[in-house]
Design goal:
The complex is a heterodimer of chains A (282) and B (100).
Chain A lengths: L2 H4 E2 L1 H6 L6 E5 L5 H5 L6 E2 L17 H11 L6 E5 L1 H16 L5 E4 L2 H7 L29 H6 L5 E4 L3 H5 L23 E2 L15 H10 L8 E4 L5 H12 L5 E3 L3 H5 L17
Parallel strand pairs in A: 1-5, 2-3, 2-4, 4-5, 6-7, 6-8, 8-9
Chain B lengths: L19 E9 L2 E2 L4 E5 L5 E6 L5 E6 L2 E8 L6 E7 L4 E8 L2
Parallel strand pairs in B: 1-8
Antiparallel strand pairs in B: 1-2, 1-5, 3-4, 3-6, 6-7
The chains are: A alpha/beta (282), B mainly beta (100).
């Protein structure tokens, strides 16, 4: 996997705005951002309404994902380019989700919506018209998705990477600081997890750092390439960003995203929790 | 949810006694700047959160007590850093002025 196959520049996107085989998809946590304006031709995916089961905590089924992409006009052989706000957190989550269901050619727009806006590039309010397709999804590739029992069994055995901010890791904050601090679950982190905030992988404008910088970052923090790795955050979108870095940019095998993340782990009964800045022991 | 709503989350229905709110407005030549990006950095300089400013140039964070830095990015402007101290039960107000 090379950077060019998974990451595109704003210039590349501008050159492919009228390419019928390139589908731009905006995914924001603040879904009203798309309503105001978006890159010309981009369709929207709502990470919550479109990608989450409305009743239980899980993703939509293969059949539902097929219906969704068919309706949005995404074909199996299309190049899907994802972008969004928040430094591509939810776009990276959607990227991982597309890979989970086996889409072949998915890429991220480097820097996402922020970089695009900071460059003063064009955004339009017009909604695109795309013809429906007949999309076929694969079965979920759980080699990139971790569940709680595996996470508990990984303590002291695999690389656990907590990508939240240092204050969330230590238990001083329960949520990212643009949200009220009122969650009910316990604060802290999974024992032995290293804290490598997702943001260390990105520049201020939201673009990814170079491969060399990224290799140094994770290597110095003790992520052993020869061990399996599980990344987590609060609900799995920031850790999808780190999963993208490790698995897609750096080509590290056996990296999983734990989408249950702290909102699940921090609510489990009788699992070990560590507070403070140190990883703690198994 | 883990994302940034423009201007930050409303204070409606939130018990402010338990929160250390940091909020304010971004201006250029006295006028509010919509769609600037304000990021909250912790005492080690590490990213903690980021929101785009609202139509009226406003932003809001729910931080913890202690020192923080606000870094503001906007098109055609030099990034601006402002130091601020959060206090539980208090709302810290910050004005950020952009220059080209």
């Amino acid at each position: 996997m090379s950077r060019e196959q998974v990451l595109v520049s704003p210039d590349w996107v501008e050159q492919h705005l009228d390419d019928p085989k390139v589908v731009l998809v905006e995914v924001d946590e603040d879904t009203t951002a798309y309503d105001k304006n978006h890159i010309r031709g981009a369709v929207r995916l709502d990470w919550k309404k479109d990608l989450q089961d409305p009743v239980r905590r899980d993703f939509v089924s293969k059949e539902q994902f097929e219906a969704l992409l068919s309706e949005r006009g995404v074909g199996n052989d299309d190049t899907v380019v994802l972008y969004g706000g928040n430094n591509n957190w939810f776009a990276a989550y959607a990227y991982w989700y597309f890979k989970l269901y086996g889409h072949d050619d998915v890429r991220l727009l480097d820097g996402g919506r922020k970089k695009w806006e900071l460059d003063s590039r064009d955004l339009v309010p017009d909604l695109p018209e795309r013809q429906p397709t007949t999309y076929t999804a694969g079965n979920q590739d759980t080699s990139i998705r971790a569940f709680r029992d595996e996470v508990v069994a990984s303590i002291g055995a695999k690389n656990l990477v907590d990508v939240r901010s240092p204050d969330e890791y230590a238990g001083r904050l329960l949520a990212p600081a643009h949200l009220p601090q009122e969650s009910a679950q316990r604060a802290g982190h999974i024992p032995t997890a290293s804290n490598i905030p997702w943001s260390k992988a990105a520049n201020d404008d939201g673009t990814f750092r170079s491969d060399d910088e990224l290799r140094t970052l994770y290597g110095d923090a003790g992520v052993d390439r020869d061990r399996d790795t599980i990344a987590y955050c609060r609900i799995g979108e920031r850790s999808a960003h780190t999963w993208f870095v490790l698995h897609e940019l750096l080509g590290q095998p056996n990296v999983k995203n734990y989408d249950g993340s702290w909102t699940e782990y921090g609510s489990l009964v009788r699992v070990p929790v560590v507070t403070g800045d140190e990883p703690g022991s198994a | 949810m883990c994302g940034g709503k423009e201007g930050g989350v409303s204070l409606e229905g939130i018990d402010l006694a338990t929160q250390a709110v940091i909020q304010g407005v971004v201006r250029r030549d006295g006028e509010p700047v919509a769609g600037a990006y304000v990021r909250l950095l912790d005492r080690s300089g590490e990213f903690t959160a980021e929101v785009p400013t609202s139509a009226t140039g406003q932003f809001r964070f729910f931080a913890g007590p202690g020192p923080w830095t606000l870094r503001t990015l906007a098109p055609r402007a030099t990034p601006v850093d402002r130091a601020v101290v959060g206090q539980t039960g208090q709302v810290a107000e910050v004005e950020v002025h952009l220059t080209a």
